[in-house]
Queue: 4 jobs
Job 1
Amino acid sequence: MTDHSNRKTSLRTRVAQALHFVEGDTGAVVPAIQPAATYARDENYDIRKPYFYRRDGNQATCHAEAIIAELEGAADSLLFASGMSAATAVIEHLPTGAHVVAPRVMYHGVLHQLQTYAKNGRITLSDYTAGDHDELAAAVAAQKTALVWIETPNNPNWEVTDIAAAAKIAHDAGAKLIADCTGTPPNITRALDFGADISFHSATKYLNGHSDITAGVLSVRETGDFWSEIELIRKLQGTVLHSFDAWMLIRGMRTLFLRVDKCCANAMAVAKHFDGHKHIEVVHYPGLPSDPGHAIAKVQTDGQFGGMMSIVVKGTEQNAIDVARFCEVFYPATSLGGVESLIEHRKTVSGEGFPVHPRLLRLSIGIEDADDLIYDLEQALSRAMS
Ligand SMILES: *Cc1c(COP(=O)(O)O)cnc(C)c1O
């Protein structure tokens, strides 16, 4: 007989079952939501671990963190009320004057936050061209660096950064590497395995997948003083994820693998269809063999490449805006990683002064029928260009 005693179920199975959750008292296969803001002490007047007050965390949030830690292969994960509050906690924990190296163009909210801290004299900031490892290395070497920030794939042009190479650059300089891999969730990209010290995801996006909460998560291979500091920032700023939202996140993550499989397959179909199209100047999608980041992305995304892409349309800026306006299946909305496909004219959304191509449309490809998505873009393009 085969010995099955050491067989571990796959991540797919464990995530679909929220780590084989069964409630002790009732046998419920779905966790209850505990909304308490405060918890009574026990008969000895001791605090009942692990919860004390809302800002310390709660059961549903810890459950969601355990699922993400499993996905990431992490020692620990911490969930915040948004991706931005998670990112801010990392920036906030840096000592005054710390040198941070980050992409010149990246997710606009994080960039704005880094620039604000730099303007206020809290940190010093150097930049590099996303995906350019030589420029990254030069920026890190130019002065004593505390933190290297990479985003891969990188908004909104989806440049790919080699996480292992960036980790080496950071570690050789005594710096930590944070990898924002929101565009490719941890079921396809495990940044810690490639050497990142902190893996960061806006869980608003693929992890939740239903565009109905905001959440952010940090995961680490090793805990320690810096991790305790970040947890303390979360507590004192009151940015822990709410139990209701954690419950929604747990429900969303049960279908993470299925959703992401379909998003990736759809994105590949859309990218191939519009690559070389008469109305399209370029398709930025690491899944295309011609894309400069293709080879690294293939390794880093388990061959799946993700559901995010951008297209630069020919013609005028107004033509590009019209394509977004004329779509009937794609929603003209910001955000990404949901089951529904979204299209947005990045320049309108990120505002004047942000370096983005004026004819760039960012597409978040959902789980709909791929032909419907292709047809929708075709009709919007021909209407906009006529
Ligand atoms: C959305 C996003 C964030 C910010 O997350 P929120 O949950 O919106 O606060 C950070 N980085 C990337 C790449 C994102 O897409």
Job 2
Amino acid sequence: MKTLYSQLPAIDSLLRDPALQPLLAQTGTAFTTHQLRAMQQEAREHIQQHQTLPAWHANWPQEALRRAARQQQSALRPVFNLTGTVLHTNLGRAQLSDRAIEAVVNCLRQPVTLEYALDEAARGHRDNAVSALLCELTGAEAACIVNNNAAAVLLMLAALAPGREVIVSRGELVEIGGAFRIPDVMRQAGCTLVEVGTTNRTHLKDYRAAIAENSGLLMKVHTSNYQIQGFTHAVTEAELVELGEAYQLPVITDLGSGSLIDMTGFGLPAEPMPQQLIAAGVSLVSFSGDKLLGGPQAGIIIGKKALIEQLQSHPLKRALRVDKMTLAALEATLQLYRQPETLREALPTLRLLTRCSQDILQQAERVMPPLAQRYSADFSLAIAACSSQIGSGSLPVERIPSYAITFTPRDGRGSHLNHLSQRWRSLARPVIGRIQEGKLWLDLRCLDDETALIQALVA
Ligand SMILES: *Cc1c(COP(=O)(O)O)cnc(C)c1O
């Protein structure tokens, strides 16, 4: 064993190895030395455990280069999202429009008037530009932008009802992925939750009966990631607004996704629109920037001027505010909504959601033959109808017809599917599908670059 240890090369001599010079030039001595030390340590452990040298001992410089290349890859790897979920939270939700991407790059390369009012040569407010656009598009009086919709809900509660009771229907106490639960947010904001009604039915009289001296807000939460069907009743925003007015209580709505355009016009299921709630008199409405809106991660709050001012002056706003990249991307995204007739082309989220299934089928027919040639020894390939989903809790029950290429192991062994999906996940640009019913499914709804996909899977 001693002799095995003595075969490990010295760091000094490796650093002089001509094969390592490109790596040294690229990453410097400190990084390369650190890397070689880690390899030495790993080799020692390998000898101790297996009484052999690791396989890569044959070529240390090559192994060092391989490891360095892997470590220099960004942790945010571009992937092919063939999961069938368009707004996939784990894959970064909305893909931004070209306009939004340009706007971000532009605001990064030079100083910008983030909080600077050119007319008065004085301090401006960072939310101004986006607020004006939001008011134009929704009819709201004012707007406030924070880091995400969870932050928006927290800020609305903390600023408007600290130490007071907030009345919510039992059927709307939702949990969104990532441990965002309305009761917990309520506690964090220093509010007391008052649940009214039952899981399936809540009436206006339930809210009325709960109103007491310490009531601060009436709140509605859009049950975006589930649906209660059957014997149900919920109170509309308009009814709640009337009740709120009688008792001078603001009504706030966490809309979750929210869409600024009528989705049914694009053949998609209806989703509540923030402007409808503003028209119904709701005091504040919050929704996400990177769900159906198709923009950057952000929490958007629109509504009554006096209440928005309360949010803007609350200390939490400073902690939850967004940076110039987000504002630039959000402004550019919202500008696209001024021209609804070109929105489908300009906004990737909408383009992907509205791709017609015939188009996807034709694409599947083009993509399948080269894949079949490569994989048909071990798998039988087929084109199968499937259904995509919007994702991010939007319209959870509704599915959009799509087509997938499916891979079924010829010997029926499920382990082959795991193996295949693992191999695809280790590609330079990983391919992410889903395993279901003994098949690996590649839903092509979100496939933009089919040539790149074929190259990746066939190489
Ligand atoms: C998605 C969602 C949230 C959280 O929004 P983020 O932007 O992800 O923070 C909150 N409430 C509802 C109803 C949602 O659908």
Job 3
Amino acid sequence: MSHLMNTYARLPVAFSHGNGSWITDTKGKVYLDALSGIAVSTLGHNHPELVAAIAAQAGRLLHTSNLYRMPQQELLADKLSALAGMDEVFFCNSGCEANEAAIKLARFFGHQQGIDSPAIIVMEKAFHGRTMATLSATGNRKTQAGFEPLVSGFVRVTYNDLEAVRAIAEHNKNVVAVMIEIVQGEGGINIANVEFQRGLRQICDENGWLLICDEVQCGMGRTGTWFGFQHAGIRPDVVTLAKGLGGGVPVGACLTSGKAAGLFKPGNHGSTFGGNQLATTAALTTIEVIEKDQLIANAEAVGRAIREDLALALSGTSGIVEIRGQGLMIGIELDRPCGELVTRGLDAGLLINVTADKVVRLLPPLTFSAEEGRELVARLSVLIRDFLAA
Ligand SMILES: *Cc1c(COP(=O)(O)O)cnc(C)c1O
């Protein structure tokens, strides 16, 4: 028996190596990877430039700690700030840590304005992580059960319901921020509509609140723009990143601008590993390749083609509720629980995911080619049709 703590219902497969969008298991079977390790391996597997950059950095320095300056970290902060239109960056190692930084920052911001019990508006079906604060911000009772008492200071509203946010603005003077995923990942690929995003920006401005965008899953090119909020042309005060940022190397970031910048001083927050040489080199190289190979345009075009081809291939199939998404962040909602499709996918040589019980989730590498997109649609549409017919 394994000594691993039983925190995952693991699939009975292990992989030995990968190449681009293809990954091979320990028995030699090859799979098309339409999940990228949950939006992490954005350059696909074994990308030659990323491998070379990581290897070269490992041969120089892995880590020195944030007691010292790190040129790579400064370069990455410059680059991310330019891409996102932000001012400052704090580096950590994961999505929940990036969100913890954002939550601490929002509370700190509130206290500076004399609000002793600052609150953050969060969304139904949100996912922000598994630490106590991010779990409390998450909108899923099941993942919270058994871990009470939760961290206080979160007020929940329905996604895309601007009136609910306005109502809270009138009555709750403790609110200091709104936290939102522009495209909810774990919650089932739900997209914040443009009016909602712009409305939130306006309400935050009117009330002096921070707008925090959790772009841990939908950021870094996934939706066909660098960041999800760029579709609506808004600028958040705080942006959190992780998953795809390092192309597979753990790294997270919390970006701030305007009134959210300049708040933290030495001693207010920190991380031992955060943004070390290995992690920031991986992120810099990932961004370089995304730009050089125009992978954001690729994500937009290939993602659109996949959604259109899926709609065609599944048209007239009863049991399909909706096919939705942006770029290479795609959900196919069925009218019934469909977790079983994941193992059926393995049999068919396809890595996919099911989230929110009924939503098939696709998060292919940003390097996914048009041909791989067609192969994905061919394999997946058969799986879904057979599943729904059974
Ligand atoms: C995955 C995810 C997180 C948590 O990231 P970890 O690296 O697992 O801590 C937070 N927010 C969103 C939107 C995510 O998709």
Job 4
Amino acid sequence: MQVNYFGHFLLTLLLLPLLKKTGKPLEPSRIVNTSSIYHNIGKIDFKNLNKTNYWYKFQIYAHSKLALVLFARELTCRLRGSKDTHVVINSVDPGAVGTNIFYSFGPIRGAIIKFLFYNMFKTPWEGAQTAIHVAMDKKAGEVSGEFFKNCKQASAHWNAYNETVAKQLWEESVRLVKMSDEELNHCFLDL
Ligand SMILES: *[C@@H]1O[C@H](CO)[C@@H](O)[C@H](O)[C@H]1NC(C)=O
Ligand SMILES: *[C@@H]1O[C@H](CO)[C@@H](O)[C@H](O)[C@H]1NC(C)=O
Ligand SMILES: *[C@@H]1O[C@H](CO)[C@@H](O)[C@H](O)[C@H]1NC(C)=O
């Protein structure tokens, strides 16, 4: 959760003044975060946001990827309040990419998964295309809080559209990264 979500959350907020300063109407600052198809099985369990001892560790990965989509939606809402803000944030599902991520299941299981599914996986080059699309395409820069897949805007799981959860996740994240109200307000000020 720290690597996949809380780190992005904090870094993005700390960069916000600069992103706001450099974003222009026709060339917004773009934040692109890599979610995953596994956000579908993610849940936001507020009592256990910092829990690390799941019996099935992969579950935390899924939670973190759902949290990223919710974050993109909530930040979009919060930025909409300030006029003249040209910052967009979207998340992407790169697809199943044959990277070394599968070795996090262990060396043997990782090698078996890679071997079995080799032909179905995208190469890292292919897997990067949706993120590049969202970072570069003119139309993709006109939306915010959205989810992209195969270089197209797509629907995330309905859990990612729950505004109450997005707002509460934001508040919990601010608390867990230990940001004060003053520091948070500072992130939304103009440089
Ligand atoms: C998520 O977005 C932030 C801000 O653009 C960026 O610094 C970070 O590298 C991104 N993370 C991933 C995994 O794409
Ligand atoms: C996890 O969060 C709970 C509830 O916010 C808190 O009481 C606990 O100290 C946290 N644990 C760690 C390891 O940060
Ligand atoms: C949002 O999630 C909360 C908590 O899980 C749930 O009680 C509520 O019904 C959800 N709202 C919608 C519109 O799905």
